[in-house]
């Protein structure tokens, strides 16, 4: 282990640059690295059982000995993760060390822990007036984190096999999926419960550090493969998690309100992802289609301000809203989709504005009275499907589910429909046609692909789905006004896709969650959120255009010159085809 | 136009009735006439070559045939039906093409590329695709099977799941042919199928073209490599400055002094992939 | 008749504004086939640059001599913004799929708007633009027509810039280099033209005209707002498409046409759908109609298909 001959074989893109730097670290490869890491974990975790702060009002309460709170428990969890990787490096789990880049994982975890501790101690010092208010426990954990980081930097990877080719039993795979799902559920519930911005930020840092460590170790290569192999289990698991989520909230409407907002946003973004991610069309007026659905939902509702006297059952309203949106999509799409793709972006943008102006003008004085103009349509009653009133709390298995939980389940159903449409279309004749169009429009046309028809279908189909979600949104929001559907909302949706990953379902859900949750939880950045989103769009396009959770194809498209990446993705694809067969 | 002089080896298995007829095709870009009054007939089961120095308008003529350009004058009929100048309609009517500079869907696998070629011969629409009914499954299965069959036919049966962009150059050319064949054409147009190939690959290409012909298709080939084209074709058209200079059997065209003049200085033996460069000097 | 002429005057005024901004879209599109969506914000930043120059250097003064310095300040800020964004955001994306620069452009646009809103003192609400002697104040009255003084400035700015631009593009080496790059960047590069430099210049030229438009807008409306770039940018793009994108004369013609069409719609569309509440809607409807019936624009797009 102390020789560097075992250090080899990773095709990771940035390691090529980093290795020389790492090589120069004093003590690299020395036998002391591993015990140092163990000691680091012990000290890090040990410190969490002691008080970190003198005052009790910072980041929850960090002042009690032998009673770690959430912020400290994150460090315990991180310590445990680091311990597992260390034991895989050398010790009882060493079998795994051949498959995983344990050194990189320990390195990331160590550095993450240092960052975490520095920020935590910084917040304590800042909020309680000075470094004196940091108790020994905090310093001890920081020391542990530093030792862990040092160990990680000194360790040399033993990995010499590609986790892509790991043959694993299906019980291990399925239990891994179950454990991951449970962690996601638990993590989401926990994150929503965090009250203060500081703790939330730290939790985010902790999650990112662990995720990055697993990525660097190569664990996600394997997870991705088993996810492909056990797709039905995964989908079922994901929906089970999403379905169970309200039951973890003990009837708290506050968190469920955020959760439903995330879900509306995610469902809409998923619809947009069909247009942008699959068909490759940049639709900058997508929010208007959501708005069109919402207005249909509003004017056909039982609101005293509704202007149309037809009150059909809700399922009809949903269909009318969706079809109305789709029709608008056809009207806008059919002229523009024939000309260059760039025009579409601007025309959809203009359409978004037309929509907003029109909704603001149809107030009786500038046009027929349909929308009540800028005041919108307020007092939209809660949905009632059959005898189920969405406004009333219901009790299931002793757990009370409030108004938002009711909407949550309905939205979950809509999201499920959109996901189904998304994945099935993606994996069909139509999906192949879209890819071909994205790749080379002229060649696609010359090979008999109906380029215009497929584009129009994506565009109008996306509008249809948004209209569907809009009708529910109207009832959820209680009122519909033009200023809910401004361009920035479209940009916001686009940001979710770009951040999460064009053309992937998981990516968009992650992106939507991050973008909605962050401003909710980090009130101090609320005013800067659009500034940050703008920046996110620019930086993502520059550095990771395929998004956090990338689809293989998109990754290839955005890295046309990267031969190594293409080879790697082909290898992954071959392996996936094999395990699925 | 006589075929009587053709050596027996080149006699097509069965020369049937005309399948493609181009009449008086003229293409002007502003003041420039790139193609002028070109007539071409291709019969069933025939391999027709289109030669000519660089800039003679071969590819422009191809683009007129396949609907990429709308000819200024003239018309093109396939099996008696006038072709509209729309690439997709042309494919649906039964004429497919390859491109001079390979235009594969680089980030799709070989199989997927060929499956895209099946697009216009399959019909699963949105609802079927979403609901995954038996019809969808059957059609998807058939598409896959046909694509695999075509990959085997062009000799790429082993590279089914390779990304197109990772494939060697020669394989990419063959993949493009498989993709075009997937549209079930009656006639296939190959734009410089051997550009950039070594002699062995060129040999394989001409074998492949013979096999395509033997499967009942008519073939039109644009090529610079004279030796390749004279060994391959039943009939050759030589295009110079947008006009048909000579039309006839390879033997006739080869010995025609005007053709030799048009190609002067350009060795017709050794210009595997630098045909354009050598002919350019003569223009 | 007076109504008609009055609307022509109004249309020419607003049209000149659109034309000044539209040139920026068209020049950049002609050269790199990029819809620089953030160009509207460059216009907005120009207006704020002028205001900042005035606030810092001349607060309280109204002399006409202040105006050139304000314009200079506006141009400097706008050009700097445009050049920096080209360098750090767009240049690395050349050769990337078309979606990437478009998304970047939206990101920049949102970022710039928010940056001004958050960091320019008082910009969260409308800011008063200074009154300048001669170019603001009581409207001129000629033969029953009322002509805003700032309108004269706006139209004059357009005429002057159009003349300078024509000279630059057709009579200078750089301008000819620009034409060469827009025809065929690869060959231009081979011929020794520094393509990167030409692209930066295209951005800078567009930004300078947008800055001028920003000042004009401030004088016309006597207040400015961090949101003003969005709609103006969209209108200017419409103008560029209307005239034929990539075509500089087209941008001018398109801008004026759009301005007049808008004014006429306000005046002459009868009933509830006329009036200023709908004029933006009609402008965009015009954009869609142009794309349906004449996608190459009035004077023809000058974009080479490089597929």
From TrEMBL, chain A:
GO MF annotation, one: branched-chain amino acid transmembrane transporter activity
Principal location class: membrane
Pfam families in the record: BPD_transp_2
Gene Ontology CC terms, in alphabetical order: plasma membrane
Subcellular location field: Cell membrane
Membrane-spanning ranges: 31-54, 66-87, 108-126, 138-157, 169-192, 198-226, 233-252, 258-279, 286-308, 314-331, 343-359, 407-425, 446-470, 490-514, 526-543
Record membrane topology: Multi-pass membrane protein
Matching InterPro entries: ABC_transp_permease, LivM-like
Keywords, in A-Z order: Cell membrane, Membrane, Transmembrane, Transmembrane helix
Family annotation (PANTHER family): HIGH-AFFINITY BRANCHED-CHAIN AMINO ACID TRANSPORT PROTEIN BRAE, HIGH-AFFINITY BRANCHED-CHAIN AMINO ACID TRANSPORT SYSTEM PERMEASE
Protein name: Branched-chain amino acid ABC transporter permease
From TrEMBL, chain B:
GO process annotations (BP): D-alanine transmembrane transport; L-alanine transport; L-isoleucine import across plasma membrane; L-valine import across plasma membrane
KW Protein transport (keyword) present: no
A GO cellular-component term linked to this record: plasma membrane
Keywords: ATP-binding, Nucleotide-binding, Transport
Domain ABC transporter: 20-266
Family annotation (SMART domains): AAA
Region (Disordered): 264-283
CDD domains for the chain: ABC_Mj1267_LivG_branched
A GO term, aspect molecular function: ATP hydrolysis activity
PROSITE patterns to which the protein is assigned, alphabetical: ABC_TRANSPORTER_2 (PS50893)
Keyword Cell cycle assigned: no
Domain of life where this protein originates: Bacteria
PANTHER family per the UniProt record, alphabetical: AMINO ACID ABC TRANSPORTER ATP-BINDING PROTEIN, CONSERVED COMPONENT OF ABC TRANSPORTER FOR NATURAL AMINO ACIDS-RELATED
Protein known as: ABC transporter
Organism expressing this protein natively: Knoellia aerolata DSM 18566
UniProtKB/TrEMBL annotation, chain C:
GO biological process: D-alanine transmembrane transport; L-alanine transport; L-isoleucine import across plasma membrane
Cellular compartments annotated: Cell membrane
Membrane topology: Multi-pass membrane protein
Domain of life the protein comes from: Bacteria
GO molecular function term, any single one: L-isoleucine transmembrane transporter activity
InterPro entries, per database record: ABC_BtuC-like, ABC_transp_permease, BCAA_transport_permease
Pfam family, one: BPD_transp_2
Transmembrane residue ranges: 12-32, 38-57, 64-84, 99-120, 150-169, 198-220, 232-261, 281-304
UniProt family annotation: Belongs to the binding-protein-dependent transport system permease family. LivHM subfamily.
PANTHER family on file: BRANCHED-CHAIN AMINO ACID TRANSPORT SYSTEM PERMEASE PROTEIN LIVH, HIGH-AFFINITY BRANCHED-CHAIN AMINO ACID TRANSPORT SYSTEM PERMEASE PROTEIN LIVH
Protein name per the record: ABC transporter permease
Gene source species: Knoellia aerolata DSM 18566
